[in-house]
Amino acid sequence: MDDPADHRQLVSVLASDLAWLEDHCRRQPALAKEASQLRLAGALVRNAVGPFLENEAKTPLHVAVVGGAGAGKSTIVNFLVGAKVAEANPQAGYTRHPTAYIPANSSTTWTGHLGFLGSLRKLDAPSPANLDEDVYQIRRVEPTALGDVVVWDCPDMTTWAAGGYLARLIEVTGLADVIVYVASDERYNDEVPTQFLHMLVRSGKALVVVLTKMHEANSRQIIEHFEREILSRLPKAPSGKSAVPVLAVPFLTLDQLADPVRKAIAHRIPLINQVMVLTDAATARKRAVDHALQYLSTAGGELLEVARKDLDALEAWKSLVRYSRQEFDARYRAEFLDGEGFRRFDEARERLLELIELPGAGRGFAMVMWGLRLPYRALRSVIVKALIRPPAVNIGESQVLEGAFRAWMDQLRAEAIRHADEHPLWKHVATGFNSGLSDAATKQFQGLLRSFQVSSADEIEAAARGVTAGLEKNPAGLIVLRGMKLLLDALALGLAIWAGWFEWYMLTLIPIFVSVSHQVVELIVRQFVEGKRSAIRSRKMTIVSQTVSGPLADWLTVWPATGGSAYEKLQVALRRVPETIARIKDLAEPRLRS
Ligand SMILES: Nc1nc2c(ncn2[C@@H]2O[C@H](COP(=O)(O)OP(=O)(O)OP(=O)(O)O)[C@@H](O)[C@H]2O)c(=O)[nH]1
Ligand SMILES: [Mg+2]
Hints:
By secondary structure, this protein is of the alpha/beta class. The protein is built from 20 helices and eight strands.
């Protein structure tokens, strides 16, 4: 046996997720119909599934009478109850809140269930049916032939956007075991009531259609027309059965209206028979719950379709931010890194060359070598000056980053404006740029830039120092290098002497050979330092990416989900709704089959 706290928790989580999604749709006028579908799903969960799992003992059969404005709903309620209890009124759209008619001796404990009829408040005293508030009332009537049945008179559903009162009707629809759908002869083809009928069929509710107000002679023909034009186009119920009985209640005389039990018996009995096919309330409730659960699990994905559009927009925003971040990084690389020489590494190179010269007693030899290379150095400096232009002045790093940041923001703003008509998310971002988003992003960026500058300066210094530091701390290694350099110089010297063998030109060969040997050492050192230099270049790219563009992109990505809008919550709901439905279904299954 499951823990009652468990199913209560599941029902309340599902109901609140659905309510949240509904509210989210309500904010978008184009999604009024989807909002109502979500409301029905929530109403099924709160008013039918919840009480069932709670083992609510002995709930009476609930019959809801629904239909377009002025279709004759209140009249049909009286017809079912068998007395003039509901206010029928020539003004279409008169009934504005649900009213339950119950036998005088019947209990109303079923109203006490948590979440019962959602936000509708129970009126304590009888009130006119046209009270336009989120309320419901219960009126006790003389016990009827129907037995312990609750008959609900409901407001109409003429437009999906019906300012609030449509939701009152949907609440009762979720509760009902049987729905009597009323349509008058002139208006049974109206679009919204027909769409509503679709929704009811899909939800698997037991339905009876009553066509009203026609001439008795035409009733057969109108029923056939309705079946052909409306019913045959309805979707299949999840149970597979969608045979909906259609009855006619022709235009009645005032006399018949006043006393349907005796004066309209020929029309009343067939209707009551259809409604009472499921005489046993417990069986009817099981059937309603079973169908509701089938509907929720099959239509779950479709219900979430509305949220999926939001998530697609969120995904598009995310990839725009990702893409424009890459552009920011690329611009930093092209405008700063590629042109930046990191002069600090030139110093490090000189220092390294100095280090591998002989110290102390070897100094004299080094000085002689240095003297011998004088002509080479003079010549090299002339060539270098002639060939290499002074480096172009590189724009400061902060300036490049700031420029790239501004370009980034401009791109996001332009894209948001371009897509503003496609989805509210883009509009939200576009308006954001006019009211605080730019400032907040700039502040964010400057904070990141500051911490980047600190860590970056330290990093370069450490890398440059690292070029020589290792060697300075490693005397043995230094001795080996110095020895190798000495060997190379000695070799060059020896070669020059051997080649010149005290001819006059030996004096020119010596400076040339020792210069070449030195040039070789310089090339090796340069190669080594260049490696370090390009390492710091890619290291800097990584730092910019990790400390500036990455965090800023993260901040921008979630921006639409903060400050009141709730795209994050959508993701939670999308994941959780199907899961919760499945778990509730598992809990209900054994009881439905027992
Ligand atoms: N004479 C006669 N009048 C009818 C009949 N059916 C409905 N009416 C009248 O039509 C008008 C509308 O009927 P209601 O039952 O109030 O319709 P409703 O669907 O409840 O309308 P709203 O609550 O306004 O949406 C009322 O004035 C009824 O008296 C009928 O069979 N005969
Ligand atoms: Mg009415």
